[in-house]
Amino acid sequence: MEQTRQDFKQRITLVISAFNEERTIEETIKGCKKYVDDIIVVLAKRSNDKTYDIAKSLGVRIIRDHGKGKGDGMICGINAVEGGIIVFIDSDGSHIHSDIPKIVRPILDGKADMVVGSRFLGGSEELYGDFGKFMRMLFSLIIAQLVNWRFRSNIQDTQNGFRAIKASVAKDLKLTSKHTEIETEMTMKHLKKGYKLVEVPSMEKKRKFGDSNISLLKHGPKYAWTVFKNFF
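The structure assignment produced for this chain is given below.
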């Protein structure tokens, strides 16, 4: 039987960072509503399509980031949540909304402080296909192994944006990354502080419109620096 919000006893807030996602934001919000108590759309400062109007019409909270990137938006979302559990989900339609219950369940059961929806356990349509995607996958696996070696952990996906975390823990991590490397920073700081982390399988679908903005040449150095500075 599919679980809905009424099955959970902690307040769950969904945080969606969005930059010009007018074609998918409605489906994302409607698909997630029955699993959470509150939805915050963190709208990119540079967003100039109808994402704001669509989100507003659906009655969710909307805040603006500082125009510095996805990580900046996630930090704004963390700061806007008072307690309970935060679920992060991408706005491009690549994550499966009905996976939210299994993402939060280990936290509710006291088995985790953060849960990552693993693409390497659940599969991905985004990380396979061409050489560029292969190199992204390989780079992700290398980072995961470095993290595992440093913290004696057993994590396969340090970077997926679909994850749940206790709000108090998210605030304690004092995240600083402004771009997509924030998930790696979150994972490493989480482990460094001794919090419990669990992975659950979650399929990543191919985004419905456009291509990923992540470029290994552009973003690779940011990830490498994030790993280095949080390694010690």
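Interim note for the steering committee: DSSP finds nine helices and seven strands in the chain. Strands lie at 12-18, 38-43, 61-64, 85-88, 114-118, 163-166, 197-201.
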